[in-house]
Structures
1.
Amino acid sequence: MTSSDTSGNDAESRRILDTLRLVKDDSGTTNVLSFAALDSVAVRDGHAHVSLSVSRDDAGKIEPLRPRAEAAIAQLPGIDRATIVLTAHRAPGAPMPAPGGHRPFRLDQPANNPGTPETRPDGKLLPQVQAVIAVASGKGGVGKSTTAVNLAAGLARLGLRTGMLDADIYGPSLPRMLGQSAKPFVEDGKLIPVEAWGLHVMSIGFLVDENQAMIWRGPMVMGALSQFLGDVAWPELDVLVIDMPPGTGDAQLTLAQKLSLRGAIIVSTPQDIALLDARRGLAMFEKMNVPVLGVVENMSYFCCPNCNHRTELFGHGGARRQAEESGVPFLGEIPLLADIRASGDAGAPIILSAPDSEAAGAYTALARAVADSLRLTPPKTSGS
């Protein structure tokens, strides 16, 4: 295997499915797939990251089988290590809709929803979402999307019902970073979000070829964003994380006007030139009366994987100082690590694929800080 192997490989998924069928309980009557369904697979440098969709009730039945399944997958040619993550969404084993119940969505065939989108009492969309938050930056290249993906996965890992919207029409990265290439379907006039790693997700990247250039004028972009809000069957969510496009333009204004944003998170790197743009982002949300939940310093420092020596390649502490000057919380430092980049390329968020890593610890702390700031708590299950 090479580091370029990603999920979505049908042959890889098939052989892991075959292996999971062989991992049985002590009675020998049921296997892993009796309680779960394969959600996604990513293989990088011999490490298989496997996500299984399982109901909350069946999660306890999978736990005793997980070590056996990981050991069995690690015996496959080209794989020397395996990590299985359990995600709770659609009931595993549920039958697919009958032909005609769903149809693929195409850009030249809009959802054509005959109904009126649900709105809150204030006229804003998505009343079924408890909190909508924006992850933004004043410029590109600061790791905003990577931060947003791992934040969303971290919130889901805390037990929150989490969705994610990729609002970057020109440069969608969510499908690659989540290892998903599935096309959304339309049911009852609504787009059905793609499910990946415990998240409900929508991106223009699911609807167009990865290499296709989106040469659209502003009104078309605004129309697509409006459709992703009003014509998508978002379920009841505790939090929807929006990966905002870089800059301070029409997309940001449209989302602020159509949604009741609970807050925004600004991602920056430590150097002065990035902080200039971060200040513009802070000013934009202030003008739109959107609370800023805090600032994150990405690529804060680099630790050599060989000697563990810490080097501050882009300076250090600039984002913290900016947060203090602006009177907003500082949400933490994310290190510059090769594994973060590689996990994004492989379609397996590092907070899930390597939960004990330094990077996962930083993203987990960020997710907890955001959940605490929003006063979000996981919904209680019937057995709790």
2.
Amino acid sequence: MASEGGEKTEKPTERKRKESRKEGQVPRTQELGGWGSLMLVVLLLPMLLERESEALIDLFTQSTRAIAEPSVATALQLLGDGLMHVLIVLLVLGSGVLVVGVASALAQGGFYWATKAVKPTFSKLNPITGAKRVFGPQALWEGVKMLIKSTVVGVLVWVAIKALMPLIGGLVPISAMLHIVGDNAFSLIRNVAIAGLVMAGADYLMARRRIGKQTRMSKEEVKQEHKQTEGDPLLKGAIRSRQIAASRNRMLADVTNADVVMVNPTHVAVALRYDSERGAPKVVARGAGAIAARIREEADKARVPIVRDIPLARALHRSTQVGQEIPAELFAAVAQVLAFVINRRTHGQFGGEHRSPRKESELPAVPIAGRRRKPSTTPSAGR
């Protein structure tokens, strides 16, 4: 019992996940957006520099020419051109970083409002809880992560410097040396960004694992939440019983409006009402056993004729539901019974229990209730 009630072994429910998001318990790493932005800058910056280098050379040429005939208008024009090129570079890089930041947030569960996380609580001031955060598994993982990042960055920097060592003191032209140093610098930053993205992925997996453990639920918690959301099974059963009883009482009350009750003679009972303006006869009540006995009692009280017809009563009970029209295959048989009942009513004879006026013992096969389609046009039963 203790293991079932206390040990958290079950996955969190959807309601628990929503509450955890409000408390800020969402698997997320801030490093994914940072390293992704750095990777984007490394990819875009060389192309931007190559594009803007030609404009920069042209700007320097125009500046040299302007020295011969200096003027305020020329100086302002050159300054505006230079600022425009800088603005283009910053705008492209800033937009790219913004897109990467938003995409990384969406990839980790989207944006959310941790409303409960900003509320002051005593647990945040608890020194024991604070000590667990400082010396717990999360702090250990942060230390290991920092050590791995420092080691990887140090190794990559050492490899880049070692590749440049043969150029120092050599006879390599300064332009070629600057080109090689620039390529190595960009390669170094790109490799560092790739390593950072790998570490960010590992950090996200660890955060997902940690949040998964924190949000686990015990079997007793799952049961209690199920009761709160779905309702107590005993209460739902009682409500369902009351609904069935109310529906049954309404059905029995409708027996007083029936034209005839077909019986078998004690097992089943089906009450029919016929309205020539609405088409085929409709079932207003049906039942077997005790319900059939109640239908016969209500029919006796309301002086509704009861007709004993074993095959027809069984066929109607098997092929209809309350509120449903009778199947087309039984129109002819029911029409004979209704003609008999209506004839007695015209002579002032009501109620009573009678034998069926039908002579035929066999009926056409009819589908079970719920498996037949309602006919698009239902001929009158009196035809």
